[in-house]
Each structure stands twice: as structure tokens, then as C-alpha cells.
Amino acid sequence: MDPVAAKYIGAGLATIGMGGAAIGVGAIFGQFLSGALRNPSAADGQFGRAFIGAALAEGLGVFSFLVALLLLFVV
Predict the structure, then answer these.
(1) What is the pTM of this model?
(2) Distance between alpha carbon 19 and the CA centroid of its chain, in Å?
(3) pLDDT at 49 over 90
(4) What own/partner pairs with CB < 8 Å and gap ≥ 24 does 58-64 have?
(5) What mean pLDDT do residues 6-27 have?
(6) Rounded to whole angstroms, what are the CA distances from 41 to 29, 31, 48, 56?
(7) Fewer CB within 10 Å: N-end or C-end of the chain?
(8) Cβ contacts of 54 within 8 Å, gap of 6 or more
């Protein structure tokens, strides 16, 4: 296999993490909305935790994007 082709395949596989991050953020806010509709009085206390979870999920997505860019342009 050509090393350049392997580099592109590796970078494509590394970007799967960005899709996983998007699914994770959607699940976080979907479950938050479901819980907030069931118990509106507890929604204010959990809103900050939902944003922390979303930030962590997005951080992993950005990390996978960084790995893909490193594979494309550095290695």
C-alpha cells in the first residue's frame, strides 16, 4: 500500500470521532430535555452539568480532528 494512501485512510478514520462527538452532544441534550420535561423544578440544577458534558464531548471531537490534521500535514 502506498504510504500516502495509508495516511489519507488513517486521517479519514480519525475523523469518525467527530461524528461520535456529535451523537454524544445530541444524546446529552436530548436526555436533559426529557428529564427537564418530567421534572421542571430540577432542570435548573442540571443545566450546568449538561453543558459540562457537552463541552467534554466536543473536546474529544476536536481532539480527533486535531489527530486527523496531524496525520495529513505533519506525518
Answers:
(1) 0.79
(2) 7
(3) yes
(4) 58/21, 58/25, 60/17, 60/20, 60/21, 60/24, 61/17, 61/18, 61/20, 61/21, 61/22, 62/21, 63/17, 64/14, 64/15, 64/16, 64/17, 64/18, 64/20, 64/21
(5) 92
(6) 17, 16, 14, 25
(7) N
(8) 25, 28, 29
Task: For residue 27, name the pLDDT band (cuts at 50, 70, 90).
Answer: very high
Contact residues for 36 (Cβ-Cβ < 8 A; gap 6+): 42, 43, 46
pLDDT-derived band at 1, boundaries 50, 70, 90: confident
Mean predicted confidence (pLDDT) in 26-45: 93
